[in-house]
Design a protein that fits this description.
alpha/beta, four-stranded mixed sheet, elongated
């Protein structure tokens, strides 16, 4: 049995594995060095027989479609805003979707509602009038000084025209491509900029189906195409 066959036999028997776990198994039946094992892993990844699921973790798993979580509170927010403003475009999502992809996980209990640019202020005041703690298009400095993401709050933002979205149970939500670009461009996500955005993109590329053409088209509308190209290349 070849080394590649040994590795694939091991991979087939489990959902995922680390390099150390694999090397212990291979060395029981082969004299190949760690560098040799790593060479075979990289070759199998290029052949799309293995996947790097995250840093140091491998497996055969097929990539899933990204599905933002739809909670009762998020659904109610969308339906309430839709009822009050029936003619505007609306997109909602939960900060928990972002936290779940972070390396250094931080709590984000915010709900985000993005609406047509001209309607953001009206939606913000409508929420405030109903006793909901909301913030209108917060800047980096405002987020840093006044916003506690561990609290249950609503952040009102502008929905960029032609944003890539999906519809889940009648609720318009962001696609993974949209989230990846927004995380790298929006001021309220300042705390993720830098090394954390690399990890989030790496996580997204490894675990989910991501349409790079769609992502880059949207990034161009946000003036961030070159930044996103660089980030994707860095994650390869």
């Amino acid at each position: 049995m070849s080394t590649a066959e040994i590795i694939m036999t091991y991979a087939t028997a489990r959902n995922n594995f680390t390099f150390n776990e694999l090397s212990e198994y291979v060395r029981d039946v082969s004299t190949i060095s760690d560098s040799g094992i790593l060479w075979h892993i990289k070759k199998l990844i290029r052949e799309k027989k293995l996947m790097r699921l995250s840093r140091g973790l491998y497996g055969q798993g097929l990539k899933d479609e990204f599905q933002p979580r739809l909670t009762d509170s998020l659904k109610k927010l969308y339906q309430d805003v839709r009822g009050a403003f029936p003619l505007i475009d609306i997109c909602v999502y939960s900060g928990a979707d972002i936290s779940s992809m972070q390396h250094h996980i931080s709590t984000n209990n915010a709900l985000y509602v993005e609406v047509t640019k001209e309607a953001t202020e009206a939606v913000f005041h409508w929420l405030i009038d109903r006793g909901i703690r909301a913030y209108h298009r917060p800047t980096e400095s405002f987020m840093s000084d006044y916003v506690n993401l561990s609290e249950e709050i609503v952040i009102v933002k502008t929905l960029v025209t032609e944003s890539p979205v999906i519809v889940n149970d009648g609720i318009v939500m962001p696609s993974l491509e949209k989230l990846m670009v927004d995380i790298n461009t929006d001021a309220d996500f300042y705390y993720l900029h830098g090394g954390e955005t690399f990890y989030i993109m790496e996580h997204a590329l490894n675990l989910f189906k991501l349409n790079k053409s769609k992502l880059l088209r949207y990034a161009s509308r946000r003036g961030a195409r070159q930044k996103m190209v660089g980030l994707i290349n860095e994650c390869k």
